[in-house]
């Protein structure tokens, strides 16, 4: 029996919003081969811009009408961060895609998230923590991890140990605060080893207080360099506190590092613990002492760096491949429209 071709209207958060790029947009071309066409509706104002919420809500109104001809509506989190707005007015079936604990968003996330979830036909959640929460409000919840485009994120090719050991972190500047928690072990490590450095790939520099300035490099993030810059790292790091917000994160930094065949040091919080359980990919660290020791262990062992990196890459290929996840999404969409 020939599968029906379906048209999806994707209501996303903005051009360069990570959740848009990696939870929706990267699948558009892949979904075509599964009988799904995705038309993205990007608001005039980015969801994270500083304008008052009424302006952001108004920017969503055109998509309400333009999406009427679609067979299915795919929403990237709430239409306006922290508010319930027009979700109930959208054509059905509706799919909510969530890769954050949006019920914690200020000011009305605790109201918005249940309201939106109850008015969806399906919720696609990025990890089990999110899925468990949304299952209170919707009986059709699927866990779909954020995937990696293996054509863009390629493994670094280094046959001999580099002269410089490079600690790498990538992310938005709003998350630089997580680096503050490990500034002391970073300082101790960099000071003890002159052939080491920290590279921060972000939209703004990290304003640290005590690291040796000649051993810290800032590289301004662009969509073009976000994958290739990882090849300059020896290890990728992902520090996080353990709280309700961070437990909702979908380990994307870890997955990016692993796709580049890098070992990882990360806080064992939320989905990070699940990723660590898949193989010997690096070290979980939840105290300054463990962070310092993990850095030392990798610094002294080039073979461990290579082996952990290779294991991580294999785990990405087997579990977080964008081609595989696209097929999973297509099955969900066809089930809703058949």
UniProtKB/TrEMBL annotation:
The keyword Transferase applies. Keywords: Transferase. GO terms for molecular function: glycosyltransferase activity. CDD domains: GT4_PimA-like. It holds the Pfam family Glyco_trans_1_4. InterPro entries: Glycosyltransferase_grp1. This is Sugar transferase, PEP-CTERM/EpsH1 system associated. It comes from Anaerohalosphaera lusitana.
């Amino acid at each position: 029996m020939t599968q029906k071709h379906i048209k999806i209207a994707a209501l996303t958060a903005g051009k360069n919003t990570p959740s848009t790029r990696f939870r929706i947009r990267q699948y558009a071309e892949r979904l075509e081969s599964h009988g799904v066409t995705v038309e993205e509706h990007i608001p005039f104002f980015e969801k994270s811009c500083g304008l008052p919420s009424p302006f952001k809500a108004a920017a969503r109104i055109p998509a309400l009408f333009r999406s009427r001809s679609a067979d299915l509506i795919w929403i990237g989190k709430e239409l306006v961060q922290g508010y319930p707005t027009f979700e109930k007015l959208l054509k059905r079936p509706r799919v909510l895609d969530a890769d954050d604990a949006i019920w914690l968003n200020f000011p009305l996330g605790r109201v918005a998230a249940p309201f939106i979830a109850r008015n969806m036909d399906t919720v696609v959640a990025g990890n089990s923590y999110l899925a468990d929460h949304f299952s209170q409000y919707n009986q059709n919840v699927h866990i779909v991890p954020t995937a990696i485009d293996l054509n863009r994120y390629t493994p670094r090719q280094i046959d001999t140990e580099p002269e410089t050991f490079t600690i790498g972190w990538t992310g938005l500047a709003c998350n630089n605060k997580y680096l503050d928690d490990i500034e002391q072990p970073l300082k101790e490590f960099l000071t003890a080893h002159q052939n080491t450095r920290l590279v921060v790939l972000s939209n703004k520099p990290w304003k640290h207080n005590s690291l040796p300035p000649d051993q810290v490099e800032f590289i301004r993030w662009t969509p073009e360099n976000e994958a290739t810059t990882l090849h300059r790292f020896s290890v990728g790091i992902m520090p996080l506190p353990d709280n309700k917000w961070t437990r909702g994160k979908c380990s994307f930094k870890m997955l990016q590092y692993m796709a580049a065949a890098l070992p990882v040091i990360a806080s064992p919080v939320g989905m990070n613990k699940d990723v660590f359980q898949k193989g010997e990919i690096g070290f979980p660290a939840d105290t300054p002492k463990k962070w310092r020791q993990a850095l030392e262990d990798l610094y002294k062992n080039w073979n461990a760096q290579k082996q952990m990196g290779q294991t991580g890459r294999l785990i990405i290929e087997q579990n977080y491949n964008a081609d595989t996840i696209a097929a999973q999404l297509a099955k969900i969409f066809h089930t809703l429209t058949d």
